[in-house]
């Protein structure tokens, strides 16, 4: 880059409040994690980052197609060598280190490094983006430029696996009571059930039977339900990709189908229908019950 171009870039950075010597913090959603379901933008940001913060599982996904260098080219300090000889620092993320790593990311950016903070699914759908902004506020990190790179969330990936259940109004509800009390979760579930939303439940390893019982109070037992595991991850996830169609009245009887953190439940409404071909059963929620001729 010429001196004139460099000066112009620096001036632009300073004009929007970002010091010219800073890097960028990108919170990157990688969807399920496998390359077929990761956006091109997400791959480019991760490949070009100076520092990548990711859990062990996400590192496995990213190494599978060369988005980050293989483990054999990564030393004990996490310094990985790319094909062109340049290096990239790989930092292991765990649930217990989220705040620590957010602060570390700010420091890297202030040192001029571009940081990719990896989140599964979409970083703004029960992901990491809110934590990054909260920590930036607490750490007075208004000088750190933050970019959110969206990804494919489980609701969309799971819906695609079972047909077209989200073609009308829908909502998502997390069953994790780590951040809010169960009374609040129950209130949201009941309101969603009464309102006729198709409901996608996240974090189903917690309280999913209780959630089903609450929705049953407001919705017919015959409502269609899909239990989806590790959508988009094939056999690479924690328990393997699968989908199972049942009814609301019987959903809690299939605990063996709810395998853990990668499980989502899609609860249909009064318009959701089953559609079958020779191979499998799908769920379809028509868009307002319109006839084909109305499209």
Give me some keywords for this one:
295 residues, alpha/beta, 6-stranded mixed sheet, 14 strands, 29% helix, disordered N terminus
Give a structural overview:
With 295 residues, the protein is of the alpha/beta class. The chain has 8 helices and 14 strands. The strands form 3 sheets. The protein has a 6-stranded mixed β-sheet, with helices on both faces. Helix 4 (98-110) crosses helix 5 (129-138) and helix 7 crosses helix 8.
Short characterization:
Helices cover 29% and strands 22% of the residues. It is built from eight helices and 14 strands.
Proportion of residues in β-strands? 15-25%
Percent of residues in helical segments?
A: 25-40%
Rounded Rg: 22 Å
> Average pLDDT, to the nearest integer?
90
Strand order of the largest sheet: 3-4-2-5-1-6
What is the β-strand count?
14
Extract low-pLDDT stretches. 1-13
* Terminus-to-terminus distance: 52 Å
Task: Record the SSE blueprint.
Elements: H1 3-15, E1 25-29, H2 40-48, E2 51-54, H3 56-64, E3 79-81, E4 87-92, H4 98-110, E5 115-119, H5 129-138, E6 146-149, H6 154-162, E7 163-164, E8 170-174, H7 182-195, E9 198-202, H8 208-216, E10 224-229, E11 242-247, E12 263-267, E13 273-276, E14 281-284
Helix pairs in contact: 4-5, 7-8
């Amino acid at each position: 880059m010429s001196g004139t171009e460099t000066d112009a870039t620096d001036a632009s950075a300073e004009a929007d409040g970002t010091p010219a010597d800073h890097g960028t913090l990108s919170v990157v959603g990688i969807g399920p994690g496998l390359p077929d379901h990761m956006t091109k933008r997400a791959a480019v940001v991760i490949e070009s980052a100076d520092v990548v913060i990711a859990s062990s599982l996400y590192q496995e996904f990213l190494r599978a197609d060369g988005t980050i260098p293989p483990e054999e080219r990564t030393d004990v300090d996490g310094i990985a060598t790319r094909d062109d000889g340049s290096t990239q620092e790989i930092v292991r993320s765990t649930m217990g280190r989220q705040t620590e790593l957010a602060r570390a990311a700010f420091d890297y950016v202030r040192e001029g490094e571009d940081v990719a903070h990896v989140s599964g699914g979409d970083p703004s759908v029960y992901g990491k983006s809110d934590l990054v902004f909260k920590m930036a506020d607490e750490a007075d990190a208004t000088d750190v430029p933050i970019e959110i790179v969206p990804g494919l969330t489980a609701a969309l990936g799971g819906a695609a696996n079972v047909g077209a259940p989200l073609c009308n109004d829908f909502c998502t509800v997390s069953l994790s009571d780590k951040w809010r009390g169960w009374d609040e979760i129950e209130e949201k579930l009941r309101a969603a059930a009464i309102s006729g939303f198709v409901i996608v439940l996240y974090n189903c390893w917690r309280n999913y039977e209780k959630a089903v019982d609450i929705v049953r109070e407001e919705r017919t037992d015959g409502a269609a339900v899909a239990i989806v595991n590790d959508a988009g991850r094939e056999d690479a996830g924690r328990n393997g990709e699968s989908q199972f169609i049942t009814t609301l009245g019987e959903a809690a009887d299939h605990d063996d189908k709810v395998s853990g953190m990668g499980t989502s439940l899609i609860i249909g409404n009064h318009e959701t229908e089953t559609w079958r071909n020779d191979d499998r059963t799908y769920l379809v929620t028509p868009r307002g019950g319109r006839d084909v001729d109305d499209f």
